[in-house]
Design brief:
heterodimer; A: 231 residues; 34% helix; B: 298 residues; mainly alpha; 0% strand; globular; disordered N terminus
């Protein structure tokens, strides 16, 4: 990846309507390393689909999407998976496997994509758990955790392993009040080392306190993605 | 408002053929096109049905080859994959052990004691070993082990993976760069393979042993247990040493693979009520196909 190259770039990307349900309009977005883009979207499902689009999971009928200089459509499965392993993601739905305990769910992407020693991964996850208000790593099944604890666990998982891009769906309604500040701090720390952030929000209340640090503000509607002025 | 609906297939076909053919033959071409157009929906329906029927078989062949190929890459056996392999192996062997012992005991009581009694009655007691090997160990054991594997563990895998697909968890795995084939299908299939072999061997030993105990108690067999097992081993040919373990291995492999693939290919219209019967029917079919294929050649 070149020094001044965008981290994530959607260039007239038109998603396949059959695969996504997203309007086949050209989407344009450019996030540089360390930038934070906030996208207003009231519909959770549309936000999740757009997040999938940015991670190369939805075929395009036109245009291109590049992440770290690589076009998703030109990569093979193993390359796609390796590249997706560089993205930390918070999803609202379908992100917890009931087969494993929450601790394994948190560490699963990191254990899959890296060869870091297990103890090191556990230590890092526990540290992040403390940051987000856990006394340690939760080992119970995810479906037995409360919404607030799942939101904490989602944050721990997203920030694990120094991701290059964070794609954060809106969990502000589940995230406990005392976790909001650590969330902003961890996000800022990640941005300081060059991680880009794509943050979906439903209302301005979710990012109001962070607005001064936001670089791009857009709105995702049925008709496409529209730029808004950052206040 | 203009009507933009496509023309019927007859008109489409005749239009296309009329464009392709020379102008002087347009009348004949039109007639042929009308004929083709009339049969086209029937042909399409037959094609659709054929493709639908062989879809699972083709999927199974492709996934089987993919599983073997991926398993040879050291890079495929990452930590979550190994974890999943161990967890499934524990479930397959631990969950099926008691059922296998009970079934093997019942099968042993029936087959060994009956064989010993009737062969002794017919004055062919020296054939007891070979009859037991060919009937119990080579033919009955793989079928029963396959059915128990499928019932105790295959249906569980099918339901788990099917529910994960319907709940969006598999898509969530993909979004995090975790290949569901590597993380779920490959380790589970190999766990079933190892489990099939292990449970099959347990079945063979327990059924023969229990059969011996009963036959010995009833006086149908008077030799020692060592002589009995020695006779069984002597009755086995070189091929049996290859075919019997291979049957257990293949039954385990295909039951596991079939369950995982059936789970992974559920559609959004599917529910438990449609997933389970389909998976059960496919599992039974696979167990029988593996056994029948071996029966044809050996």
């Amino acid at each position: 990846m070149a020094a001044n190259a965008p981290l994530l770039e959607l260039r007239d990307a038109v998603p396949s309507f059959e695969e996504s349900g997203l309007m086949p309009a050209p989407y344009n977005l450019r996030i540089m390393p360390g930038e934070c883009a906030v996208i207003d979207c009231r519909d959770f499902e549309r936000a999740a689909m757009f997040a999938d689009l940015c991670t190369g999971m939805i075929p395009l009928t036109q245009g291109s999407i590049r992440f770290m200089g690589l076009d998703w459509s030109t990569l093979y499965d193993r390359q796609l998976n390796a590249l997706r392993g560089r993205i930390g993601r918070i999803s609202r739905h379908g992100s917890w496997l009931s087969l494993f305990g929450t601790h394994l769910n948190i560490m699963l992407p990191h254990l899959y994509h890296t060869t870091d020693p297990f103890d090191h991964v556990v230590r890092r996850a526990t540290e992040l758990g403390h940051t987000f208000g856990f006394p340690g790593l939760p080992v119970t099944a995810p479906d037995r955790l409360s919404g607030a604890d799942l939101a904490r666990a989602a944050c721990v998982r997203a920030f694990m392993g120094r991701p290059d891009l964070l794609i954060l769906e809106d969990i502000s309604d589940m995230l406990p009040e005392e976790t909001v500040l650590p969330f902003f701090e961890t996000m800022t720390a990640a941005r300081d080392r060059g991680c880009g952030v794509l943050w979906f929000v439903r209302s301005s209340a979710a990012w109001h306190e962070y607005r001064k640090a936001v670089n791009i503000h857009m709105r995702l509607l049925d008709e496409g993605l529209f730029s808004l002025r950052v206040v | 408002m203009t009507d933009t609906s496509p023309p019927p297939p007859e008109q489409q076909a005749s239009g296309m053929l009329a464009q392709m053919g020379p102008p002087e033959d347009s009348k004949d071409t039109g007639r042929v096109a009308t004929l083709i157009g009339r049969f086209a929906p029937w042909l399409a329906a037959i094609g659709r049905l054929t493709r639908h029927q062989v879809r699972f078989t083709l999927l199974l062949i492709g996934a089987g080859w993919g599983t073997l190929r991926e398993s040879l890459r050291p890079n495929s056996w990452r930590r979550p994959v190994i974890y999943e392999f161990r967890a499934t192996l524990r479930q397959v062997i631990g969950g099926g052990f008691l059922s296998i012992v009970v079934t093997a005991t019942l099968a042993g009581l029936m087959v060994v004691s009956q064989a010993a009694y009737w062969l002794g009655y017919a004055g062919m007691a020296q054939m007891t070993g070979s009859i037991l090997v060919s009937v119990l160990v080579r033919e009955i054991a793989p079928i029963l082990v396959g059915i128990i594997l499928m019932g105790r563990s295959g249906m569980l895998s099918l339901t788990e993976i099917g529910m994960m697909v319907l709940g969006g968890e598999v898509r969530g795995l993909q979004a995090r760069g975790i290949d569901p084939f590597l993380a779920l299908v490959m380790p589970r299939t190999f766990a079933f393979t190892v489990g099939g072999f292990t449970l099959g061997m347990i079945f063979a030993v327990v059924s023969l042993l229990m059969g011996f105990v009963v036959a010995h108690a009833s006086g149908a067999i008077t030799s020692s247990v060592w002589t009995f097992f020695f006779n069984v081993l002597v009755a086995m040919t070189t091929w049996d040493y290859l075919i019997i373990p291979l049957k257990f291995v293949l039954v385990g492999f295909f039951v596991g693979l079939g369950a995982c693939i059936s789970g992974l290919t559920v559609s959004s219209n599917d529910t438990m009520a449609t997933i389970m019967p389909r998976g059960f029917a496919r599992g039974i079919m696979l167990v029988l196909v593996v056994n029948i294929l071996f029966m044809l050649d050996f």
